[in-house]
UniProtKB/TrEMBL annotation:
Keywords: Disulfide bond, Hydrolase, Plant defense, Signal. PANTHER family: CHITINASE 12, CHITINASE-RELATED. Residues 99-298 form the Glycoside hydrolase family 19 catalytic domain. Pfam families: Glyco_hydro_19. GO terms for molecular function: hydrolase activity. This is Glycoside hydrolase family 19 protein. The lineage of its organism: Bacteria, Bacillati, Actinomycetota, Actinomycetes, Kitasatosporales. Residues 1-28 form the signal peptide.
Length: 298
């Protein structure tokens, strides 16, 4: 009887302060992080890319591709090991942006661009945001996400919005042509991968046939993030170095703009677009608690 009276008093106090009786538990679950809230893996259950599960041996795995409950230990193309620290964050040396910080950066993002999808893609390019000092790693993560924010309207757009451009991205001079169709290679994903030759190059690097199935970039979150990391880590574009090299070698954020769209934006080409990217970068470095460094403009 006394316990019931105490419980009633607690509920009354919660109601008086405007709090829900479930609020403390929900807050704890959020703080506990991805691994603490992960469910046990179940054979035959559908798992979207980015889902983290606890295997029967107590270890965690993240789905790198959608799958109907394949065994994480056997089906290594569909699953990758996932390591956690207190709170569910990656261990030191892992991705330096927490899920809460990611949500703060992209409060209105499309649900397709999941944090777990991004984590699932990191294994493709482990040097990304994992090279150099803790400051450098945070700066690179902020630089990548700042450019991504600009390209996608804050992770809102999965595909290029100007459909009139779609037929232009097929270079018939390539020996492999455009097997998915004249209008199939439009911009998709965090850095808006476009052109048949880029789909082929990214697919070859990632071991995925994107030339024949470019739609994977808009349907599979992990693949979509991987194509953006492919460009960031391996492509110089109109610049003289990859965006990854620019950040780890101290060339600064401005050099990443040059490598992504410098032929149209840099050297006074479109200062408004450059300023948009820089503003994103300054905001994201602020969220991560790191100085933006010099050479912000191109």
């Amino acid at each position: 009887m006394r316990r019931n009276r105490i419980a009633a008093l607690l509920l009354a106090l919660l109601a008086f302060t405007g709090m829900s009786a479930l609020a403390p538990a929900a807050s704890a679950a959020t703080g506990a992080g991805v691994c603490d809230s992960a469910s046990n893996w179940t054979a035959g259950k559908w798992y979207p890319a980015g889902t983290v599960v606890r295997y029967s041996d107590g270890r965690f795995y993240v789905a790198t591709h959608d799958n109907p409950g394949y065994d994480p230990v056997i089906s290594t193309w569909y699953w990758s090991p996932y390591t956690c620290q207190g709170g569910g964050d990656p261990q030191p040396g892992g991705f330096p942006v927490s899920e809460a910080q990611f949500q703060q950066m992209f409060p209105n993002r499309n649900s397709f661009y999941s944090y777990q999808g991004l984590l699932a893609a990191l294994s493709a390019y482990p040097g990304f945001a994992g090279t150099g000092s803790a400051e450098t790693r945070k700066q690179e993560a902020a630089a990548f996400l700042a450019n991504v924010a600009h390209e996608t309207g804050g992770l809102v757009y999965v595909v290029e919005q100007n459909t009139a451009n779609y037929p232009h991205y097929c270079d018939r001079n390539q020996p492999y042509g455009c097997p998915a169709g004249q209008s199939a290679y439009y911009g998709r994903g965090p850095l808006q991968l476009s052109w048949n030759f880029n789909y082929k190059a990214a697919g070859d690097a990632l071991g995925i046939d994107l030339l024949h199935n470019p739609y994977l970039v808009q349907n599979d979150a992990a693949v979509s993030w991987k194509t953006a990391l492919w460009y960031w880590d391996t492509q110089r574009g109109p610049g003289t170095m990859t965006p990854h090299e620019a950040m780890v070698n101290g060339r600064g954020f401005g050099e990443t703009i040059r490598s992504i769209n410098g032929s149209l934006e840099c050297n006074g080409g479109n200062p408004g677009q450059v300023q948009s990217r820089v503003a994103n970068y300054q905001r994201f470095t602020g969220i991560l608690g790191v100085a933006p460094g010099g050479n912000l403009y191109c």
